[in-house]
Amino acid sequence: MAIRKLTILHSNDMHGDFLAEAKDNKDVGGVSLLSGYINEVRKEEDDVIYAIAGDMFRGSIIDSEYKGFSTIELMNFLNPDVVTLGNHEVDYGLAHLLFLEKCAKFPIVNANMYIKTNHVRLFKPHKIITLNGLNILFVGIITEEVLASTKSEEIIGTFVDVWDAAKQVGTIIDNYKTTKIDLTVLLTHIGFEEDIQLANLLDPNWGVDIIIGGHSHTLLTKPKVVNNVPIVQVGVGTDQIGRFDITIDTDEHKMIDYTWKVVPINSDTAPVDPILEDIIASYKKETDRKYSRILTTFERELTHPSRCEETELGNLFADLMQVDSSFDVMLMGTGSIRKKKLGPIVQYQDLKECIPFVGQIHMLSVTGEQFRTMCHNYLRNSVETKGSSEFYAVSKGVKLVYDYSTDTLETCSINEREVEKADIIKIALQDFHYNNFTEFFGVPFDEVIKNAKPRVVVTNDFSIYEELLVNSNKMDSHVEGRIIIKK
Question: Domain 294-486 belongs to what topology?
Answer without folding.
Answer: 5'-nucleotidase;  domain 2 (3.90.780)
